[in-house]
Amino acid sequence: MNLGPTVTCVLGNHDLHLLARVAGAEGEKKRDTLDEVLGARDRDRLVDWLRHRPLFVHDEKFAMVHGGLHPQWTVDKAAQLSAQIEAELQAPTWRAFLAQALGGKKTPPRWDDRLGGGDRWRAILAYFTRARTLHASDGRVDPEFDGPRSETPAGRLPWFAMPNPAWATHTVVFGHWAALGLDLGAHHLGIDTGCVWGTSLTAIRLDDRTVYQIRAVES
């Protein structure tokens, strides 16, 4: 936050959970470590900054998202859908929006541009913040599987391996799938290498794909 426009970051599933906790849209989870933020004197300032972050950003060559994309989404379409969610999060009614988007049903529906209300928000957020593998038949997000790629369940594909993706005009940088590890493809750069689990924090220089890694230090 203190670095201002020097750094661009995108929202992920844990960020949304923090916002939902503040909004009263979700309860505490077993492995939550949010007490320090929730009890901070400047909590509201931190939360306001967080809910003004994007879900998706792109330039002429690259795009960045926490989770993944639907194979039918072009980069421009993804940017439009991201902007819809961002407008809701930045509005005075953001708490009610999160209650509608994250409360109640937990299984995201199959994406259809005709979806409305909570189902629409739930589907969009599932791709941007939770996607690892998709159902090969209809592109639905499988929100449960989080293992290594070699153990992908039958009938599922990594979101970036779906055939003929519309977003492949760009190279998409993403995280979220720690068990995938470093995974560099022609149009995708997966850089979550499980630092939170004691392995490495990974960065990549986009110009030449040079990879930089720093081992986690146990406290």
- Give the CATH topology: Purple Acid Phosphatase, chain A, domain 2
Characterize the main sheet: 5 strands, mixed
The pLDDT mean sits at 94
CATH homology superfamily name: Metallo-dependent phosphatases
Relative helix content: 25-40%
Number of strands: 10
Based on the coordinates given, report the CATH architecture. 4-Layer Sandwich
Order of helices and strands: HHHEEHHHEEEEEEEE
Can you identify the CATH class? Alpha Beta
Q: Please tell me what the overall shape is.
A: globular
Secondary structural class: alpha+beta
Kindly report how far apart the N and C termini lie: 24 Å
How much beta, percentage-wise?
15-25%
Number of domains: 1
Counted by DSSP, the helix tally is 6
What is Rg?
17 Å
Give, in spatial order, the strands making up the sheet with the most strands: 1-2-6-8-7
Catalogue the unreliable spans. none
Q: How would you describe this protein?
A:
With 219 residues, the chain is α+β, with helices and mostly antiparallel strands. A hairpin with a 3-residue loop joins β7 and β8. It has six helices and ten strands, in the order αααββαααββββββββ. It starts with 12 loop residues before the first helix and ends with a strand. The mean pLDDT is 94. The protein has one domain: Purple Acid Phosphatase, chain A, domain 2 (4-Layer Sandwich), CATH 3.60.21.10.
